[in-house]
Design a protein that fits this description.
The chain is mainly α. The protein folds into two domains: 51 residues, no CATH class; 146 residues. The protein contains ten helices and no strands. Helix 6 runs antiparallel to helix 10 and helix 7 packs across helix 8. The radius of gyration is 21 Å and the shape is globular.
Length: 220
């Protein structure tokens, strides 16, 4: 049970708002120490994990391109586009994005969205522009719109990615269940992820709808 100390480190680190990278590194070190691993073994585990998941660093190739597009006015063009559309509200925009994110994640298209690729340069500015179309907003509301846009992306992916049978989360669930002596096929895990994704759509959709109503009352 001492190996669970890493979870306590993560909770405490995030509660005190420490740097997430440092928190995760310390938590991994504490977990390795509690599991009777030496410093060299812990460092080797870090290296192996990085090597096994080195494809993740490909996102850094896209960041310079996104930065150049933002410098050229990508966010401004997104705001102008939404301002020209009639009947678009923050809630409607985020509901469409939530549904889009769930559908794409369910078929394995994980890279078509994301915080760096879509939310910051496009979705959040468009949601802000839709909110400003209702009336002037203060910084508190602006930050809530951005947070809701980010949450929409996270929730859409997290609860729909298990539907696609060939993604790593399905295999992780299968391995975890097998450790508890529960036999479940990847197809069964994928099938039972569908009602979870639908429930996530309903619950977060209701949150978006409620925020949209409260936003209209504030700008009325």
């Amino acid at each position: 049970m001492w190996t669970l100390l890493g979870i306590a480190v993560v909770v405490a680190g995030f509660a005190f708002r420490f740097n997430p990278l440092i928190v995760i590194a310390v938590a991994a070190g504490v977990t390795g120490w509690a599991g009777h691993m030496g410093p060299v073994e812990i460092l080797g585990a870090f290296g192996k994990a990085f090597n096994d998941a080195r494809y993740i660093t490909i996102v850094f190739v896209a960041l310079p391109a996104i930065g150049l597009m933002e410098r050229a006015g990508l966010q401004e063009r997104a705001r102008i586009l939404i301002a020209r559309l009639k009947g678009v509200t923050t809630g409607r925009l985020l509901l469409v994005y939530l549904l889009y994110r769930q559908i794409t994640a369910a078929v394995g298209l994980m890279s078509v969205g994301g915080q760096a690729q879509m939310v910051r340069p496009l979705v959040a500015p468009m949601a802000e522009s839709a909110a400003e179309a209702e009336g002037p907003i203060d910084d508190a509301v602006r930050y809530k719109v951005r947070a809701l846009a980010a949450a929409t992306d996270n929730i859409g992916v997290f609860f729909a990615e298990d539907i696609f049978i060939a993604l790593a989360p399905v295999l992780l669930i299968k391995a975890t269940l097998e450790q508890a002596h529960v036999v479940a096929s990847p197809f069964a895990i994928s099938r039972w992820a569908i009602p979870t994704a639908i429930l996530a759509l309903i619950v977060h959709g209701a949150r978006i709808w409620w925020f949209d109503r409260s936003l209209k009352r504030k700008t009325a």
